[in-house]
Amino acid sequence: MGSIVGIFTATDQHLDRNLLLRMRNAIAYSGSDDSYLDITPEDGVGLAHVPLIRRDLSADSYQPMWNSNHTSVVVLSGTILNCREIRDELETLGFHVQSNRDTEILLKGYEAWGTEVVDKLNGTFAFAIWDRSVGRLWLARDRFGEQPLYYLFDQVHSTFIFASELKAILEHPVVSKAVDPQGLQSYLVFGYVPAPLSLVKGVKKLQPAHSLIIEAGKTPQLHCYWQLKQVATLQSTPEAEIRDNLRSRFELAVKRCLDRNSNFSPAALLSGGLDSTLVVGMMSKLLKEPVHTFSTAFEIGSLDAEIWNKNPNQCNSDADVAKAVSAHFGTKHSQLMISGRQDLIGTLRRCVRNFGEPHSNQINVTMLLLAEWLKEQGIAVVMTGDGSDAIFGGEPRHQLDMQISLLQKLPSWLRNLAYANRNKWPLKDNFNPTAFRRADLAPLTVERLSTWVTYSKVEFNQLLQGEYATDKGIIDSLYQELLKTLLSNNDITSNQDALIYMDLTLDITEENRMRAYKTSTPSGLASLTPFLDYEFVEYAMSIPFARKVGWQKDKQLLRETFSDLLPNVVQKRKKYGWRSPFGSWLKDYIWEDVCGLIKTLPETGIFTPEVCNLIQDYKPGNSRQLWSLLTFAIWHQEVME
Question: Where are the beta strands (DSSP E) in 262-367?
């Protein structure tokens, strides 16, 4: 667990101990300690490690860690969940392994299999190994990007730098603090910056399931070591067999997380939804002791009744269900009450600083406060139900896209007639008008798959100026590349199978997992996701979308497979998207700060003065656009100025 930093250079001035220490300390939330770094000037390499949980440090977990003959050294961020399995294999090969520590297992595995060791790893990881015997620095990132890894290659100074967080990269003098136009445009459309882009010119993110080899005098070589290649292949497999396999794989995924962290109190985030309930249910089944569960609730602001259809309790409906689920499984449950009267603007600034680059989902503030609270409760590792929606068709857009495919089976004249008379249908509530409006979008095309992104390019390009206003085509090229990869490795015909692949590749890796890492790490908290165990994902994604969902019923296969674990209150409950009162809290508590920050945007030279009109047009029920610009304004002040 922890974060990593490194420099590989042919220039002495860029391999300075104080420089490496500054980079390390930029992400050392629990205090600086220069003992966790190692420099070998003769190799031009400096590596540093920031331990996540200091009380867990011991001699056999110290990083950077060298092998016995001092030819290879590693720094590792994250957790390798199948250490015991790899250790058994290493010992069969004759290797002497002293512990089950992630770092030792990785280093011994590298000695045994070289760079192919990454194929054997199951877990959340980002690491760097310097092999002085061949003069090679090797970096790799886990399959779903649960551990971030930023890097910059400065060819002029023959310098390569990397770090778990952007803040550390920005400490190096070769980095120019300039906003990248492609990164900005992708942020404004998605609400996050997808790899390999970042929001700073020259800085890239190593993509999930990729590795990078750096050798002196050569251009870094990028390699993809894993892809989904069996999407939607189980067309005729018996239902009972699919359910049995799903269940056994999920149980194994939860067990791996528990076994790897058996020295910590078992804990989980419990929203009251299907996914977190399944995680808590499986944990309770496998453990003899009660699980510690945690949820959040909100004090309702003055404008919330208007937003929540005159029913402000809807905002806390998940919290009420979480209590019922806790009672069902006998967990030790605690609830954090969040109020808009606390230092909301201060919390938002702290959140943006922790992320290191803007990330516009409002849930970030909740997750930051929750992580800080869990630290106070003495919790170090927590499990979540993240990832399931993307894999099993749990998002509203999945149902909508299915409606589009059904409507496309009708001739266009009949679709038009049906749309014109939709309010007279006996089944009018089963079809969303959005499905009719998008029924002309052909399946398995960029236009169809990208129609669900948060904002259109036009909406934001009108607010930008100069080089930032020119459409770089980055959104289309991103989808084109993902679609090409999917279709070259899989024989699929369903747009929904392609859509959940996109969600897994983009939203889960770049939005969901980055939120988990960057809100939890500063509090010394590790977040584990059994649904993203890659062996479980491979099997679940081989099940066609049509076998996972029912008409107007999300994740039907998951509900039926684990029906015995689900309390009635969850089994019968419709999916509710995550809700918060932050939209109204902006108006209620920090509106003056919000207006002041938005008015700074034209001063950056990036946005036009018209961006300030969003303040006048603001409606609390539709706050995402303003929230995106607000977090960017804070980030630019905190990081770039």
Answer: 267-269, 292-298, 332-338
Any idea what the Cα angle at residue 211 is, between residues 222 and 503, rounded to 5°?
95
Q: Looking at residues 409-422, what average pLDDT do you find?
A: 84
User: Which 3 state secondary structure label does DSSP give 559?
Assistant: helix
In the numeric block, the tokens 């205090």 are attached to 31
Q: Which two tokens mark 193?
A: 């910056």
Indicate whether 575 pLDDT > 80. Answer: no
137 neighbors 158 (Cβ within 8 angstroms)? no
Give the predicted TM-score (pTM) of the model. 0.94
Give the Cα separation of 60 and 443 in Å (integer). Answer: 53
Does position 315 have pLDDT exceeding 90, yes or no? Answer: no
Phi-psi category of 149—alpha, beta or left, where left has phi over 0 and alpha has psi -120 to 50?
A: beta
Q: Could you identify the residue written with the tokens 């610009």?
A: 629
In contact, 596 and 316? CB cutoff 8 Å: no
- DSSP alpha helices (H): ranges in 337-473? 344-355, 363-376, 388-392, 396-407, 412-420, 433-437, 446-449, 457-461
In the predicted structure, residue 220 carries a pLDDT above the cut 70: yes
pLDDT digits (tens, 9 = 90+) for 604-615: 999 999 999 988
CB atoms within 10 A of CB 42: 7
- Using CA of residue 555, residue 561, residue 566, residue 569, what is the dihedral sign? positive
Q: How many Å apart are CA 224 and CA 154, to the nearest integer?
A: 22
427 phi, psi to nearest 5 deg:
-110, 30
Q: Kindly provide the b/e burial profile for residues 69-82, where b requires at least 16 CB atoms within 10 angstroms of the residue's own CB.
A: eeebbbbbbbbbbb
Two structure tokens written together for 140:
């790799």
- Residue 308 has a pLDDT of 42
Of 389, 390, 385, nearest in space to 295 by CA: 385
Banded model confidence at residue 11, pLDDT cuts 50, 70, 90: confident
For residues 562 and 566, what is the distance between their CA atoms, to the nearest angstrom? 7
> Residue 22 pLDDT more than 90?
yes
Do 381 and 264 form a contact (C-beta atoms < 8 A)? yes
CB 26 within 8 A of CB 111: no
Q: Residues in the chain, how many?
A: 641
Q: What is the pLDDT of residue 35?
A: 56
